[in-house]
Amino acid sequence: MLNALYARIALARRRAFARADRQHHLRRPVVSVGNLRVGGSGKTPTVACVARMLVEMGERPSILSRGYARRRPPAGVVVVSDGQRIHADLGRSGDEPLMLARTLPGIPVLVAEERYLAGVIAERHLGVTVHVLDDGFQHLQLARDVDLLIVGEEDLDDPRTMPGGRLREPLSAAAAADAVLVPGVRPDAAHSIGARLGVTVAFGLTRVAEQPRELDPQSVARSASSNAPVYAIAGIARPERFFNELAADGWTLAGTRAFADHHRYDRRDVARIVRAAKTAGASALVTTEKDLMRLLPFRPLGLPLMWVPLSVRLEPEDGFRSWLSAKLADRRREAGASLAGGPATESRT
Prior knowledge:
This protein is α/β, with parallel strands linked by helices. 39% of the residues lie in helices and 20% in strands. The protein has a nine-stranded mixed β-sheet with strand order 3-4-2-5-1-6-7-8-14, sandwiched between helices. It has a five-stranded mixed β-sheet with strand order 9-13-12-10-11, with helices on both faces. The longest helix has 25 residues, at 317-341. It is globular, with a radius of gyration of 21 Å.
């Protein structure tokens, strides 16, 4: 009963924003990346993938994020990166925005509860031509021109909304998306899932675990090439998937330790991890790139610390690029026609 009530409230909220035209409108196009599921769908690497693609298309994108689970969230907008330098620490930025800023040099990353205000600053002071809205499907306050929705097969298998399920909105909300991105399937299967959700455009989304990295490259060579045992730690939404992928890729796991998503490590955590790893005979620690952001303040840890960057690939890539380019061109033509017809405003409330 609570699940059904939650689903009705979520849909009523979406209809209210659409009907009352309560959304803020930025001058530059907004590409949103979001999902229905709580955590663990690959939004952050998808944001990075889309941002890189926009750069290749000649755009200057910004990334607008909420900065979930920040320890010291100030009022207003935090410019994590202006595209040239990183200006905020973990406490003010959050782990995912800081990771994006480190991973994407040249791309401004801004954090704020009110993403519209962050977008205005990015347009006026950082010269951006397009925005990528991180985790934006439920952020209805900001109008978007391209809505990308990540939907996994497990979402269809268990379509219950919160509090009993994992979905933030019912599956019927997916019809509001411009395109569905489906992890782990071929493009034809993605189209089939998109059709079930009432979305005509769909692409496959493939996770790619990159080569391990470490602050001391020699320790990577020792640990990875010799297949020496490592101790894996992860504070993400689905840590078991990370551990299983390491094992499937041939890592020898001396042990694993899972924490809650966005877990704030402290020195006692680090001491316990290192002690357990040494007891298990591990030669190094291995973690995710998001966990790395929260572990960096405690280095040196007492053992080499490696991380495995995760990226995604949109399939077919050329098809997605052409589709996205056409969507942005359509939006700009419409904006040009609006300007020709009279004065435009930055927002409507």
